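Narrative of activities, Objective 1.

The group set out to show that a structural description can be obtained from nothing but a protein's sequence at a throughput compatible with the screening campaign. Below is one input-output pair from the validation batch, recorded exactly as produced.
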Amino acid sequence: MNGRPRTFGVTTVAVVAIALAAYGTSAVLKVSELRRELEAMQRDLLTLHARADELTRTVDRLRNDPAYIEKLAREDLGYVREGETILKFPTKSNAGR
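Output recorded for this entry:
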């Protein structure tokens, strides 16, 4: 009977050790995954900050720079001043038609 309690104790310790090792491994994997996610989010945050700064500058120019507004109107809307002549050249995609 002396061998059974000792075997039970060794088995119990082995099972607990295996369980702790498995839990520790999954915890390490989870921490590694969370670190990768954090790094990706930090890169995204930098990109969003840069975009927000760019938009802030654009808004400032739209509010305070008449030359910028004229440039946009000419480029995006095709506006011209009275007396100007616009020359349009075919693009490569339209040249063969």
